[in-house]
Write a structure and sequence with these properties.
The protein is an alpha/beta fold. Helices cover 38% and strands 22% of the residues. The chain has a 7-stranded mixed sheet with strand order 3-2-1-4-5-6-7, sandwiched between helices. Strand 1 (4-10), helix 1 and strand 2 form a beta-alpha-beta unit. The longest helix has 31 residues, at 165-195. Bound molecules: glycinamide ribonucleotide (GAR). Glycinamide ribonucleotide binds next to helix 1, strand 5 and helix 6.
Length: 196
């Protein structure tokens, strides 16, 4: 089987990257993680790329005069590695419309809420302030507009009476680690089936 080539782009801890690497370690998974990119040199998640022997690149946005030149370098790195799909996994920059257009329908993101509720930052604080009884996570296509793209899949977790933002985040994160690999496998299998 020809596995689709996926790049994971991170900014920090990389626990979703690890979940994707672990899933892709199964030869039956329809994608391989072939490149890891971080926009932050200190991102802890870079060590997972090393651990799994996956090429990793730091493309530090602070070294570029503007977003267009940062994204041009990002695009070149992805093309050079023959990447077909991009998974944003805790990548904390907003991609511009021209970049998203180039990768239309090929960029996925995971967000730690049940979108369209609680987009943006401080998601768990928003959920607790709203008093919702359930929260969760969403894998969606990236479109221009923050956390607005078409939803691929979601997982629900309960909000418990004494939850703090930290305890809720930890519960949601566990669900993220199951949802992201499953959603990626689902859309790639679907895309491959349509190509046949
Ligand atoms: C995850 O909870 C992810 O959903 C969130 O950042 C965390 C990254 O953790 N992403 C966003 O908030 C994007 N808007 P990780 O680096 O351990 O995967």
């Amino acid at each position: 089987m020809n596995r689709s080539r996926v790049a994971v782009i991170i900014s920090g801890r990389g626990s979703n990257l690890l979940a994707l690497l672990q899933a892709a370690a199964d030869p039956a998974f329809p994608a391989g993680i072939d490149l890891v990119i971080s926009n932050r040199p200190q991102a802890a998640g870079l060590m997972f790329a090393k651990q799994f022997n996956i090429p990793a690149q730091v493309i530090d946005h602070t070294n570029f005069p503007d977003k267009a030149s940062f994204e041009a370098t990002l695009h070149d790195a992805l093309i050079t590695a023959h990447i077909e799909w991009i998974c944003l996994a805790g990548f904390m920059r907003i991609l511009s419309a021209p970049f998203i257009e180039k990768w239309r329908g090929r960029i996925l993101n995971i967000h730690p809420s049940l979108l369209p509720a609680f987009p943006g930052l401080h998601v768990h604080e928003q959920a607790l302030a709203a008093g919702v009884k359930f929260s969760g996570c969403t894998v969606h296509y990236v479109e221009a507009g923050v956390d607005t793209g078409k939803i691929i899949d979601q997982a629900v977790v309960p909000v418990l009476p004494h939850d703090t933002a930290e305890s809720l985040a930890a519960r949601v994160l566990e669900a993220e680690h199951m949802l992201y690999p499953a959603a990626l496998a689902q859309i790639i299998s679907l895309a491959n089936a349509h190509q046949v």
